[in-house]
Amino acid sequence: METILAGHYQIVKHLGGGGFGQTFLARDSHLPGNPLCVVKQLKPRVKDAATLEVAKRLFDREAQTLSKLGNHDQIPRLLAHFEQNEEFYLVQDFIPGQLLSQELIPGQQLMETYVIKLLQDILQVLSFVHQQQVIHRDIKPTNLIRRSLDGKIVLIDFGAVKEVSSQVGNSFGQTSLTVAVGSPGYMPSEQLAFRPHLSSDIYAVGMICLKALTGLSPRDQEIPTDSRREFCCAAFQDIVPVSPGLATILDKMVRYDYRQRYATATEALQALEQLPSNQPVSHATTTIFIPTTSVQPTTLEQPEGQVSLDSPFYIERPPIEPDCYETIVQPAALIRVKAPRQMGKSSLMSRILHQATQSGHKLTI
Q1: pLDDT for residue 295 is more than 80
Q2: Fewer Cβ atoms within 10 A, N terminus or C terminus of the chain?
Q3: pLDDT digits over 114-124, tens only?
Q4: Residues 184, 194: Cα–Cα separation, whole Å
Q5: Average pLDDT rounded to a whole number, residues 291-307
Q6: Is 357 helix (H, G, I), strand (E, B) or coil?
Q7: What whole-number distance in Å separates Cα of residue 88 and Cα of residue 40?
Q8: pTM of the full structure
Q9: What is the torsional sign of CA 273, 275, 346, 340?
Q10: What is the pLDDT of residues 87-124, one digit of tens each?
Q11: Higher pLDDT, 108 or 353
Q12: What are 144-153's pLDDT values in tens digits?
């Protein structure tokens, strides 16, 4: 039996859940083409009047926040919100793409230039969030999507957002949070103590970058610390060297004391932009040959046309982009990007070539 909400949101499948609710993929039958959307359900386990009042307050606050944040291109728009059978629902844009967790493969150390670009992408959208005085409180690889259309990072799952100006007062006149939200490994100590700050998000982003660099899991406490039990790049230099400039930024992002971190994403982004862009990680030189219509190797397929499944150039495996970054710097590398129109092929190839040149390789066309 199919489930239809609010008369026109037809549930397609269950995406996940936890805490107060569940998330579903749905189709909107009221719009042409029945486009996909994401429906988030807030379902209190206990339905007494007091609990429903708290749930209603959380729901209204989240809806207001999402409506405000959805103006940014890299945050899903809030399409609707409603109540049904003492349960609350938020409807947002569906973002086609892959989770960042699919790129951060356990044990795989990604290149520093990839990490810098990733850090820049996340901080750009997080700067907008922080400018609205909103703390996300649950930034982690599974809450970041690399959008298929253009490769941009999209920040999702604002079920954990907390507006600084709307903390709840208790009977003693003190402020406290109604719900402890976050994910082990990405949640700093002050957030565990129900006192998150904007810099708590900075910590989470820093831990994502340490995971990308080392291939180790913050959740499983695999990333080494120094003698003070602080996370820092010097603690894993024997695993993967990190340039001094990036190490300084990451070390500050993941300080134990929130007052020693960058206060906002904008501050961290400004520090990142000061990194010299002309310092390569590797000094090797590789000539990258790009076939054209005037020069076509006789031992390879023509550059036009469909690639057959048994072709040596047909490689379908996630994560596509990091794999291309690794492949393009190999001697005699050849990468062909095949996809339908308007799926970001040119943008992807541009990023691949930029990655190679930023790594100290020479581009010859």
Answers
A1: no
A2: N
A3: 999 999 999 99
A4: 14
A5: 39
A6: helix
A7: 8
A8: 0.71
A9: negative
A10: 889 999 999 999 999 999 999 999 999 999 999 999 99
A11: 108
A12: 999 999 999 9
Fold that domain 97-273 belongs to in CATH:
Transferase(Phosphotransferase); domain 1 (1.10.510)
* 48 has catalytic annotation: no
In this model, does residue 158 exceed pLDDT 50?
yes
Pairing of strands 87-93, 78-84: antiparallel
Q: Whole-angstrom distance between the N-terminal and C-terminal Cα of the chain? A: 58
What is the architecture, at CATH level 2, of domain 4-93? 2-Layer Sandwich (3.30)
Q: Which of 138, 157, 201, 251 is catalytic?
A: 138
- Do 59 and 89 meet the contact criterion of CB atoms below 8 Å apart? no
User: Is 363 within 8 Å of 353 (Cβ atoms)?
Assistant: yes
User: Measured between alpha carbons, how far is 148 from 87 in angstroms, rounded to an integer?
Assistant: 32
Tokens coding 250: 């990451």
Question: What average pLDDT does the segment 80-88 reach?
Answer: 89
Identify the CA nearest to 207 among candidates 193, 190, 220.
Answer: 220
Domain ranges of the chain: 4-93, 97-273, 280-365
DSSP class of residue 195 equals -
Average pLDDT of the residues in 274-292: 47
What are 241's two structure tokens?
A: 């060297």
Tokens linked to 262: 């960058």
Q: Which residues of 219-237 are buried (b: 16+ CB within 10 A; e: fewer)?
A: eeeebbeeeeeebbbebbe
Distance of CA 318 to the CA centre of its chain: 16
DSSP string, 310-344: TSTT----S-HHHHHHHHHTSTT--------TTSS
Contact 162, 196 (CB under 8 A): yes
